[in-house]
Design brief:
By secondary structure, this protein is α/β, with parallel strands linked by helices. Helix content is 26%, strand content 28%. A hairpin with a 2-residue loop joins strand 9 and strand 10.
Length: 227
């Protein structure tokens, strides 16, 4: 699988962009800003995205989506499936704030469909399962995507808690956070991230959501990896 990191930073990182990941040119994991210029820089066609998986609705994970969706309205491609917790209500509210009364017309042009992040399902030919993670008061979901006989685990934001181990168990590749050198409320520290990787030695870990600096295994902004 080919993994493109459009951003690898935390909410107010000054060294890295907000988080968003594209898998095989057709799956978008979260949508921190900016999306469109970084897709262009990496040669990714925004119209080729078939499914979007949203972990939760903190701004650094979703504020690139209104402009991405507007692009899809004015440059129509195939339908777009969106998966997430409470997804229809929250994404509708976000886009009504962004685009006002014109949003329903844009939504129709996009051929957008909403899929509530329950136990799992299938979109764009990709079978997935969800794991409810611990991230403050947010309803935050991790995803296990079944791709060509392998599992890609994607965590968004979470504390280092048992559900995170459940999410990555048996995955070929796991994208999880490593926010800062010390533990902070609702997040995974560098040491906790390294301990997680040590508990799952057969999984390749790629860390993101860094506030500053770096830790072994951390991805870089605009990195494209074949794994």
């Amino acid at each position: 699988m080919r993994i493109a990191f459009l951003g690898t930073g935390s909410a107010f990182s000054v060294e890295r962009y907000n988080g968003a990941v594209v898998v095989d040119g057709r799956l978008l994991l979260d949508g921190g800003a900016p999306l469109l210029p970084h897709m262009h820089r990496l040669g990714i066609d925004p119209g080729a995205i078939e499914a979007l998986f949203v972990t939760h609705f903190h701004g650094d994970h979703v504020l690139g989506l209104p402009t991405f969706l507007l692009y899809r309205a004015f440059e129509p491609a195939g339908p777009l499936a969106v998966v997430g917790p409470n997804i229809e209500e929250r994404l509708e509210r976000l886009n009504h704030v962004a685009w006002g009364d014109e949003w329903p017309t844009y939504r129709e042009r996009i051929a957008l469909t909403y899929h509530e992040a329950g136990a799992g399902g299938e979109v764009a030919g990709v079978r997935y399962e969800t794991v409810k993670l611990v991230h403050g008061h947010q309803d935050c979901r991790g995803y296990r995507l079944h791709l060509d006989g392998r599992i890609l685990a994607y965590a968004g934001d979470t504390t280092a808690s048992p559900p995170l181990d459940d999410l990555v168990r048996g995955a070929a590749v796991a994208i999880t956070e490593a926010t800062a050198p010390v533990a902070e409320g609702g997040h995974t520290s560098w040491d906790e991230a390294q301990a997680l990787a040590a508990r799952h030695p057969e999984t390749r870990f790629l860390f993101n959501h860094l506030y500053s600096g770096t830790t072994p295994g951390a991805a870089d902004d605009l990195a494209v990896l074949d794994v």
